[in-house]
Design a protein that fits this description.
Blueprint (H helix, E strand, L loop, with lengths): L8 E4 L3 H12 L4 E4 L3 H10 L5 E4 L2 H6 L6 E4 L5 H10 L8 E4 L5 H12 L4 E4 L12 E5 L6 E6 L29 E3 L4 E5 L21 E6 L5 E6 L14 E8 L2 E8 L8 H4 L20
Parallel strand pairs: 1-2, 1-4, 2-3, 4-5, 5-6
Antiparallel strand pairs: 7-8, 9-10, 10-11, 11-12, 13-14
């Protein structure tokens, strides 16, 4: 009798996003299981898989049982009550030390509530998105251990009062200053640095409560992958009052510039500028970039 295949990663919700992500992972060698109450979506997943790495399920008990432990399960389902319903359906079937990932556009207070609730049960919870950037959120970038889901570090895009950068917030808005981080950053493996863009400050259209530049909103921050330490930042739109999030992707390239090899960052910001000057920032660990403007030799 053959031993049933075990899978390394589970996906709940096989709509366009869930199916596409799982197919991409399967193409890169990950053995993945997908669950959807619509059995035809699981069948379609298996048919689209080109190497047999993926399996579709319509029975959640069979889906959970198919996963290697500790389990890593991502949900790509509509935000709101359905996320709580899926969590409650999973809880009797999973074990302490397992990881649940919410890949949806969840409001930040719900993410915090679910983290505390599942942590009390010994279950790791990772909310991928930070929603609430119109009013109320405090943006952050977090790093987690892949095998355990344990948080390693967290960098907040809005400083606390008294921390460096807090002097750029004059008024009462800093405690709910937003700077949401709702798109994926970029990574330089040679320097072991991650680069993340941040969203607008809030209130988004009225800056009366937040006079000053409002760091680190509408910016790019360069963070140590190991520690989350801020190495440098560049603010594309100081004191943004037009909802000009700087979430647009960062493109990292290695290229000769004026006869010198440079590590170059390219960014087309929502404020209408394609940031060639920012692109000439040499992404060398420990080399600071000024908050506004660059030295002439970097242009």
């Amino acid at each position: 009798m053959s031993t049933p295949t075990k899978y390394d990663f589970g996906m709940i919700g096989l709509g366009v996003m869930g199916r596409s992500l799982l197919l991409n992972m399967g193409d890169h060698g990950v053995k993945g299981a997908g669950f959807d109450k619509d059995a035809s979506k699981g069948q379609a997943l298996e048919q689209e898989s080109t190497n047999g790495n993926l399996k579709g399920f319509s029975d959640i008990k069979e889906f959970v049982a198919s996963l290697n432990t500790p389990r890593a399960i991502m949900m790509l389902v509509p935000a709101g009550k359905i996320v709580d319903d899926v969590i409650e359906e999973l809880l009797p079937l999973i074990d302490k030390g397992d990881l649940i990932i919410d890949g949806g556009n969840t409001f930040y207070t719900d993410t915090n509530r679910r983290f505390d609730y599942l942590n009390s049960k010994g279950i790791h919870f990772f909310g991928m998105g930070v929603s609430g950037g119109e009013e109320g959120a405090r943006g952050f970038v977090s790093a987690y251990q892949v095998n355990t889901g344990k948080r390693v570090w967290r960098f907040y895009t809005i400083p606390k009062r008294g921390e460096k950068g807090s002097e750029t917030w004059v008024g009462n808005a800093m405690e709910h200053g937003c700077g949401a981080t709702w798109l994926t950053g970029s990574y330089d493996p040679q320097l072991d640095v991650v680069y993340w863009t941040t969203g607008n400050p809030c209130p988004d259209y009225n800056g009366d409560e937040r006079k000053g530049d409002n760091l680190y909103t509408s910016s790019v921050v360069a963070l140590s992958l190991k520690t989350g330490e801020l190495k440098w930042h560049f603010q594309f739109t100081p004191h943004d009052t037009h909802d000009w999030d700087s979430e647009e992707p960062l493109i990292l390239i290695d290229k000769m510039w004026k006869g010198t090899p440079r590590k170059i960052m390219l960014h087309a910001d929502r404020n209408g500028f394609f940031s060639i000057p920012v692109g000439i920032i040499r992404r060398i660990a420990g080399l600071p970039a000024p908050a506004r403007g660059l030295p002439a030799e970097w242009r």
